[in-house]
Amino acid sequence: MATSANTEDLIRVVVQIADDHLILGHRLSEWCGHAPMLEEDLSMPNMALDLVGQSRALYSYAAQLENKGRSEDDFAYLRKDREYTNCLLVERPNTDFAHTMLKQFYFAAFMHPFWQGVKNGSDETLRGIAGKAEKEIGYHIRHAGEWIVRLGDGTDESAERMADAIDALHPYTSELLEVDDARQSCIAAGVIPEIGPIQAQWNATIHNVFTQAKLNVPEVDFPQQGGRTGHHTEDFGFLLTELQYMQRTYPGAQW
Amino acid sequence: MYSQGLIGANTETKETQEFLDAFQARIDAEIKIEPNDPMPAAYRKTLIRMIGQHAHSEIVGMLPEGNWITRAPTLRRKVALLAKVQDEGGHGLYLYSAAETLGVSREQMTEELLNGSAKYSSIFNYPTPTWADIGAIGWLVDGAAIMNQVPLCRCSYGPYARAMIRVCKEESFHQRQGYELMKTLTEGNEDQKQMAQDALNRWWWPSIMMFGPSDTDSQHSDQSMKWKIKRFTNDELRQKFIDATVPQAKLIGLTLPDPDLKWNENKNEDGGYDFGEINWDEFWKVVKGHGMMNKDRIRARKKAWDDGAWVRDAALAYAKKSEQQNSEAA
Lengths: 255, 330
Known about the structure:
Shape of chain A: globular
Distance between the termini of chain B: 25 Å
CATH architecture of chain A: Up-down Bundle
CATH class of chain A: Mainly Alpha
Oligomer: heterodimer
Distance between the termini of chain A: 44 Å
Helix content of chain A: 55-70%
Number of strands of chain B: 2
Low-confidence stretches of chain A: none
Largest sheet of chain B: 2 strands, antiparallel
Radius of gyration of chain B: 22 Å
Number of helices of chain B: 12
Number of domains of chain A: 1
Radius of gyration of chain A: 18 Å
CATH topology of chain A: Ferritin
Shape of chain B: globular
Number of helices of chain A: 10
Low-confidence stretches of chain B: none
Structural class of chain B: mainly alpha
Order of helices and strands of chain B: HHHHHHHHHEEHHH
Structural class of chain A: mainly alpha
Largest interface: A-B, 48 and 48 residues
């Protein structure tokens, strides 16, 4: 096993993961002050904080690897839409609490084993980020998973809304598990884990929680992909408009 | 939730002169009143009103600041703002729990907020159109809140006093953060400096109105002071806030929008600032529901509550099912 990945591939993968975290955190933060109950008004911003915090660590690392004088904010705020490589799942609109919790759950169920692998991987900086992230994302699985069960096995309306969310979002999950050339190179270098065992774990987590929630795991004939190559959904431009508003309106200002 | 057993409990007390005297003696001896202690109905009512209003203010206060989370200009500012707004929600939860120890439920208080019968701090009925408003709120609104709340750490009602200790620590952090945000703007480009000054112009008077009507017009002050719920009058606290804030504004090169603001050596014991006439008509207009954002704030809270009903119903239904299954299995 090699001990270091090609720097360009490593940067690409680090930015993909950073973008996933920033965009999912952004969506989650849209709930702040508007949650179904006060407890969720505390826990959703808290998880958004975890996610945005992880994106900062990852962007900073990408900037350091790139060594072109860019900062975490240059990555987060000053790229064009095609340059963001988050998976499409994380940019999907919040829609309702069922969609939101399901999105969190799908993502956390992937990231948890992923970070566990990275923690034992060959890249020292990523090992450090993974150590903290693994613990945080473990809570996210628990939090979102418990809601999936409550909503799936709650009332008729909540079960219907969960089924609707699964119908809408499940087609976006395969992109989480996709391995492009950059990832392949990082896997070969032992920086990130092999996808096979992670996919198996992801399937098991989803199956386990859906069974408890009396929900079905659907077959997806036509998966939706594109984010990793910068091809985003229609909603993404609006998200960037808000995210980048200040940096675009006042170029070069320090905040 | 130790308070839940107290909700709806019999809180009737025979208010004989002897009882009232003994209660006052206890207050005067600085012995805290605790949830299970007998207390005059008016003391209980005053505290429920005060703590409830305070809790509602934290919750409604999440809206004007939450307005900027998705547009915060840097990741550092974004996480700081997220954490701050989350803190406010945490204070709300704390305070609702403190109010519950007096026998009122969070649901009841929420209902009163949404139907307009309970009040919250009028300051949150002003809009946050610019990023500098986030700095101004932290610096001035949290600054004013601290002036009000530090004495509440010694409030005669134990649960409220104890909740205030943590709340004040966090508010004080928010105040410094807000000031630092404003300072950064004043060190920036012309647009940023103007943004900071504009925010100060809009927030200064509403901030000093936060201390409430002048002592001569305040309905609740006298008895609350006697019961040591409050330790200082509205005007005393307002003066303290102004005296503390004027030098802070000067230090970062901002001008307070009050031409009558002037140091007066002979004011109180150590001197203090004279200041211009407060526009109480505006204050009452906003308190009575006619500020720019009153309707929007309540509508946003109501929408969150109504849209979330199916989630709360599902959680309850699931809890019931699980309970049933557990009892069947036992």
